[in-house]
Amino acid sequence: MNKFEQLADELAEQIHKGILAPGERITSVRAMARETGLSINTVINAYELLERKGLLASRPQSGFYVLGYPYAKQIQTLAETSVIPVDIKTLDLLGLLIDNSKDESLVHFGTAYLAPSLYPTTQINQLTRHVLRDSPETISSYELSPGNFEYRRQISRQLSHMGCKVLPEEILATNGATEAVSLALRVTCKPGDIVVTESPLFFGTLQAMEGLGLSVIEIPSYPSTGIDLEMLEVVLKKHKVSAVVLMPNFSNPLGSAMSDTDKETLVAILNRYNVPAIEDDIYGEIYFHGQRPKPLKAFDEMGSIITCSSFSKTVSPGLRIGWIAPGKYYPEIRRLQLSTTMAAGTLSQKVMAQYLLSKQYEKGLMSLRLHCSIHAHKMAQRVLNHFPDNTRISLPQGGCVLWVEMPKGIDTVELYRKAISKNITFSPGILFSATGQYRNFLRLNCGIVWSSKIEQGLKTLGNIAKNNNLRG
Ligand SMILES: Cc1ncc(COP(=O)(O)O)c(C=O)c1O
pTM (2 decimals)? Predict the structure, then answer.
């Protein structure tokens, strides 16, 4: 082992043991070189190795920060595959969660909304003024489906950096990822059809499927590597499935990421059974280490992958601007969009096109990635400190949420009722399944700005879980 590998190994052990805590700034390169008697280059090599491994993150002009999770605490429990398709019935609780999200007096861990200060609001407002000044007709014109060409050209350019050959002519602007996923579901499925989803799955998508009268088969997703491909093949062999719905990059709520090899295998399986996939890539840019993971689309040769995304988690939720690359379903998607929403907002498309052209976009992403990574690690640590013994956590590799498994017997719907009386919200696990799974799970939002209120909120939540009988 080289000297720098030895130092990296020692530091990695300290991170795993919690001696160096997530979020903490590590000794500067110079000080470490002095302390250890190693050269500055050796220390830099060690830190960079740890950065590649996702255990440290560098912040320009500020130094290296500790990332890293206690791996021994990773969730082990997998979803049960539903043997038969079930009708989807989401809980009324969801409405309550959304209503509560507007109450500023609450400590919000419930919705996966990023704190307003994490968005480039000043730059977007400035660009908006420029667009309105340079083309005042923006306000008085439609930018009908498929949408503004420059906006679609920018998306195409970005996709090409991720290994996807998608022309601007193959992309449509949408009102957020929500419209994109809804269009994709409506074009591939009709009421009564069966969809296969990874489990757990984002409740918004479950709700969209419920609204279309679809039945679902849930397939377990591994906390680190995503959907169980063997199980998927078993199900596709047995059932006539209209679409597979999943988030290969940083699923909400698991934060798992499929490897390129698994993505390639998945696409091959889908092609074998002639089933399209709807991928929601909304968190793809918020990776905690390494490089931007490829979307499934990068492995699609048959046009059967429908990629949906938006800028709600990276630039602005208020612009309501997203996109869809629907492959061979383009004509049907366009027809459906023209007869439903017709278009995304003209101003939003133009502003976003300008922003994607600017250097600010990548700069903003860099600080958002670091922020979400540090906060996910910090929150994981607090959860393990304050929540009941035997609590387990996902080890998200990207995105902005943490998935938590409490000991069996703790009903997180009951916990929610108690927590809201103490002004704290979170998402109970049961919202993430159509088959009533995850009663003892919950999802926490890490896209927050740390404060004493957050710190106290996590402590209080843990105390409620420890000190109350929460059997449903
Ligand atoms: C996985 C996932 N998809 C879609 C959305 C909604 O995205 P948009 O605001 O682009 O409609 C969210 C928002 O929380 C989400 O978490």
Answer: 0.89
